[in-house]
Sequence to fold (232 residues):
Amino acid sequence: MNDLLNTLFTDARLWHGHHQKTTAPAPDPTGFDALDEQLGGLGWPRGALSECLLDAPGIGELQLVLPLLRQVTHRKQAVFWINPPLTPYAPALAREDIDLDQLVVVRTESHPDLLWTLENCLRSTITGLVLAWPGTLAARDIRRLQLAAEAGQSSCILFQSRREAHQSSPAALRLELAPDPSLALRINILKRRGSWPGEGCTLPLQARAGQADREPSATVIHGPWPDGSAQG
Fold:
């Protein structure tokens, strides 16, 4: 009995009142100072799900995750793209110092196949990040994926419709994205772990944080693109 109690007390998932242990690994900074400030320095949570809610692909959501892609691939961890709406443009990603050897694109044929793929990618020890376009997910499916992310200590970003913004979700971070006419991305923080939602911010897409001196054409990514062609 003592051994069983000791096992329970050392389990970080057990609530210890004022002595509660933390199970979440350190988050990854977003790479954008304004967004990191709105997120209270928490950045992209690891071992958890994040949701990016938008009306249509290609509004700048890929550039939003570029710094995270760079961090994860430089750690030599795999990044899985599950059912991207169009083909990611490899030359643009390579230009942004993304290690293409760490990128894997997966297409699934059914909803059960999608959930199985997501869950196993998140639980894998080689995974650093999963980017997924799953369509509509039930809350129970999101909870299932959240548990898988916790088990694998990996990060997952689900790109879903803005219609889902009014639905509750167990995701740790929820961002509502919309294009801005001035070649920028408006971000409304609907939910963030451990605090009230932030006010949001607008990110200029022509330059990353700390790289404003670069030419816009060297940093803008308008993707994803159809097979074999680029835009912009």
About this structure: The longest helix spans residues 61-74. The chain has one domain: 26-218. The first strand starts at residue 48 and ends at 54. The CA atoms of residues 108 and 221 lie 25 Å apart.
